Protein 1
Amino acid sequence: MPKNIRLLVTRQFPADVLARCERDYTCTFNPEDTNWIGDELIGRAADHDAIFFSSGNKFTADVIAALPKSIKALSTFSVGHEHIDLTAATERGLMVMNTPGVLNEATADIAFMLLLSASRRASEANRMVRNGDWVGWTPTQMLGVGMQGKRLAILGMGGIGREVAKRGRAFGMTIHYHNRSALPDNDAKGAIYHKSADELMKVADFLSINCPMTPEMMKFLNEDRIALLPPNAIIVNTARGGLIDDEALIAALKSGRVFAAGLDVFDGEPNLHPEYCDLNNVVLLPHVGSATVETRNAMGFTALDNLDAFFDGKIPINRIS
Ligand code: DGY
């Protein structure tokens, strides 16, 4: 890899990832780890050939149009790419690449942790003990909803969804899913396909949202779809916050129509609907689906493999535009 390629590294990625950047490219780093957006992002991109960034850096059509002509490639440290206007990037002739695959297990672990925490009231129970409100064991204290024999509905049966399914099987759950198309038998492994997402809602004792965020899926889980869920449903979202209509979910959590929810992602994060924080039956995490040392390193190395391939004149396997 010629060291003279100029790479703008917008975030403080893990140390081993930054070391590889430094070894192989002429880098500009962001030691303060501030989230550059808009004019600042455009200005910082001057005199660089490529940008290595994360989902906080928004590459809207306007930003892409204003990027310096020297920029040829954008490599995101994420599988999600809703922060990049791919149409604008394609029109501009930019190579855009992401990091699918390497975060499937870690994200499925967090989805399952949320399914368990929500159904067994972990957040509420933890608060009770810490607040000194626990007066001792009782036969009916903190009763939750069991998983064994229940239906786990997976919205989006890509790599992460399939890992969630694997964990669900180990917990004795029946797996149902919706995808654009049914999986081949060796990937479905007995999971029951629902052609319509609404039909999937009707069997969702436990719902795990694992689909990409697209404009059509904005506020997918709204009042009407919540009304389709079985009583006492558990809802978990480790995909993107915009997939849920927060007002509708909060109303259902308050009324008891939905037993509990576990959320790792929020519309407009790091801001979230303030009423979530007042509810006992919701577990809230700060977008940590892929947050293990191993996974964040693998994401960084994948993003750099993508750039290396591009600058070696090859077509990167994770090309998305
Ligand atoms: C992803 O890879 O999309 C994660 O959500 C981190 O942004």
Protein 2
Amino acid sequence: MIAQAVIMAGGLGSRLGDRTKAMPKGFLEIGGMPIVEQSVRKLIAAGIEEIIIGTGYHKEFYEDLAKKYTCIKLAHNAAYADAGSMRTLAACVPLVKEDCLVLESDLLYDSIGLNVLINETRRNVILSSGKTGSGDEVYLQVDNDCNLVKHSKKKEELESVYSELVGITKLSRKTLDLMVAYMDDHRQDIPMMEYEVAMSAVSSSGNPIAVRKVEYYTWCEIDDENHLRRAVEQIFPRIAENESLRGIRREVLLNPGPATTTDSVKYAQVQADICPRENEFGDVMGWISKELSLMVGAPGRVETVLFGGSGTAGDEAMISSCVPQDGKLLIVDNGAYGKRMAKMASIYKINYETFASDGIHRMDVEALKSRLLDGKFTHLAIVYHETTTGILNPVPEVCRFCHEHNIVTIVDAVSAFAAIPIDMDRDCIDFMSSTSNKNIQGMAGLAFVFCRKEALESIKDYPMRNYYLNIYDQHHYFIKNNQMRFTPPVQTAYALRQAIIETKIETIEGRYERYTACWKVLIKAIKELGLEMPVPESEQSHLIVTIMDPRSPKYSFNDMHDLSREHGYTIYPGKLSDAPTFRIANIGDIRPEEMEGFTKILAQYMRSIQ
Ligand code: PLP
Ligand code: MG
Ligand code: MG
């Protein structure tokens, strides 16, 4: 897995005159966005977890960019004015862990080039193209095995020209170290060293760097006014078209999960075949667990146990694994998912009772507290966000109370996690379930159970009521073997990895803001259309809204569904047993403008049944 990229961005960009007087070249805007930011986005979409930017000239621009994209780390080359790009690269190398992509900051390129390098089996590979005629080309000469021998801007200095350097390369940490050593050895005779010089030297002295040629690759660099004109008039439009052709038909899912995903999450599923018992895949799963844990607790506080399965598997794992033989469980039932946990408890013959609430009004927390104490319960199970109606339960308040009274808390956060900010220590949650396909915006197929460290240890010797879903066994096996006990959904895991990368950049708080913005658009329209919402606004999660069916005799959910679907929106029926309702969810990779679009369809449907 290529997890890191380095962007060399120290240079002055002096050939662009006034344009780069007060900013680095990377901040030239084309198509409304700085070119280096376009590059950052393409790297993220290609599955890069961390981008190291080597800064120099006007580094404050990059400091601001790093605030916007939390995956950016900065390394400064103080000698940027007198040393070449190799010095900037050298400043970044200590941060490089394994193999990484190395890019120039003044490039416009088709994102497919990143995939070409990522898919290469060779570890050190230079991306190159056929003739561009762009001016300032760096020509490459290769040996019989297509390894770099020499580069030059002057064709006559080469025995033959194979291709042109693009400025995107995959290099191992070992090769980077050799390049740095070469630079250090030549500080006197080559004080201004470009990184190509070090690559050629390393490659031709027994550490070959391959040259991969993509004859018609769409790319350009921007060093001067001619380059800029060519970039704006020819290259940018071609890249935009190429990339749009790889876009996947957009469907806006307004059902409560699986939620709409980004194209980059969809594409992340397309990976080389791998046996999930390989360490390389174990490392992917380990990374996923660690990153998920960090979303709900401080480092080292939470363990995330993964299972192949849907969200229900996470719930069943908790109900069957977390209650000892002599435990007594109270399950809050204010919707379908509380009921489902009660069903599980009954199947496993756990000593349990339910605390019922209607799912429309805020539950009576004081009554719940008395019941917990009066009934001498040892465990409580509660749904964080009851997706049945879209009501947000007062989980932190209830769980804090439980904590004070030594009651273990089991929380179904299937539809809350990754939208509602949660800290399991702060909120006193011992066990919590969720799934890959809701607010985290991945694909269906993985369930996870978050466990507070001590809570996980405490269930070690509890009876195994089933085999597949036992939390402790699953955790223990993974820690010992860097493998899942049973075959995991490999492609779903890769999609989840990408979804985590994207969630970290948006942040959970940012995601909740976006979801809330969509929800506001929705409820404004609902009110304007005179539709009723049984759950009061103040109790709503901002993630899903239950709406009473329109009173018109012409109303048909199926007709409304079909009209919406024709326009690219999928909606979902209600789940209340005693009232006719439908539900609109606003989770997933959706934008307020899209919700606006849906409300227009809803209004059109409402007019048609007047
Ligand atoms: N719990 C809650 C709160 C849910 O919203 C859902 C699904 O919507 C589930 C559990 C079950 O998840 P799955 O359908 O993935 O098994
Ligand atoms: Mg150049
Ligand atoms: Mg350049």
